[in-house]
């Protein structure tokens, strides 16, 4: 079991352990995780797609050796899919059994009132823990050792869903009408919410969270990331491909390459036994880093100059 207090003893210790798990990050990112752990506040992580927002939550769970519970958000996500729902099939089956034994249940009942009381007791059973299907949010509250709860792409959900999150993130508890209030067991979950800024997150939800914006890394940091993820690649090629990616991000593209695509390209070039960039190699592997044909076509006239610049720098 991970020695969590030791790992989270300082920002530098936490950053070192993240890097041990191949998540290379800035001091700002490590500080956000450190504060989230000690203050037990959720972290709202914003930034462009592919900069490591989701990966930060995954790596934190791995580093602390805690379960990762993930809720993928989408338009129309509701309480039944995010929090809990009742096992209607099981309730129906038990109802059929009750019908078959109804005479036995009511045997000896004195009057209508007592008969109703006995049936009411069975009704309470149907809305008990035994018939409750826990979804990610409720599972996170009920984890004995605590967990990392990843609420991914919260900006894709509706404003109504944010209202549900407010209760949970305020006191780490939720009210279920038929059962009562469910509170976090022992240790509240460590919560990460990610957003790609497709819509504005409400002020109320932002107030509940620490805010972290992850931009694209600078050249030096991205080279360290590539080295951690693809250590076999030659230093010269690593420097060239990262410089090329950074210049490519300055172009007018529909989708600029993310860090994950930088890593994929490094693995591709390693697989092709490349030791340096050239325009032909870049042209043949452009589909690894650019995912729209119009982007590939738009950079073709600049391909040689971009490659030469990356090699000469």
Automatic annotation (TrEMBL):
Domain AAA+ ATPase residue range list: 39-218
GO molecular function: ATP binding; ATP hydrolysis activity
Domain of life the protein comes from: Bacteria
Name of the protein in its database record: ATPase
Naturally occurring in which organism (per UniProt): Steroidobacter agaridevorans
Lineage: Bacteria, Pseudomonadati, Pseudomonadota, Gammaproteobacteria, Steroidobacterales
């Amino acid at each position: 079991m991970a020695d969590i207090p030791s790992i989270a003893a300082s920002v530098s210790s936490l950053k070192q352990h993240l890097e041990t798990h191949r998540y290379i990050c800035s001091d700002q990112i490590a500080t956000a995780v450190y504060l989230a752990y000690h203050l037990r506040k959720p972290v709202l992580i914003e930034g462009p797609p592919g900069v490591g927002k989701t990966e930060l939550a995954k790596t934190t769970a791995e580093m602390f050796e805690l379960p990762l519970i993930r809720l993928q958000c989408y338009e129309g996500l509701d309480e039944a899919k995010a929090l809990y729902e009742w096992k209607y099939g099981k309730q129906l089956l038990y109802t059929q059994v009750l019908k078959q034994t109804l005479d036995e249940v009511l045997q000896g009942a004195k009057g209508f009132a007592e008969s109703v009381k006995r049936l009411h007791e069975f009704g309470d059973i149907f809305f008990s823990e035994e018939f409750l299907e826990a979804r990610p949010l409720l599972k996170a509250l009920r984890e004995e050792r605590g967990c990392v709860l990843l609420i991914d792409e919260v900006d894709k959900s509706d404003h109504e869903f944010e209202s549900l999150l407010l209760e949970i993130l305020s006191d780490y508890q939720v009210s279920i009408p038929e059962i009562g209030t469910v509170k976090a067991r022992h240790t509240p979950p460590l919560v990460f919410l990610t957003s790609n800024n497709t819509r504005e997150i409400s002020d109320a939800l932002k107030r509940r969270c620490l805010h972290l914006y992850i931009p694209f890394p600078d050249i030096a940091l991205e080279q360290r990331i590539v080295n951690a993820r693809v250590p076999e690649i030659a230093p010269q090629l690593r420097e060239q491909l990262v410089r090329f990616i950074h210049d490519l991000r300055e172009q007018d593209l529909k989708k600029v390459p993310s860090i994950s695509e930088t890593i994929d390209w490094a693995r591709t070039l390693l697989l092709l036994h490349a030791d340096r960039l050239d325009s032909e190699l870049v042209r043949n592997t452009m589909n690894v880093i650019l995912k729209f044909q119009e982007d590939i076509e738009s950079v073709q006239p600049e391909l040689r100059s971009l490659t030469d610049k990356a090699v000469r720098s």
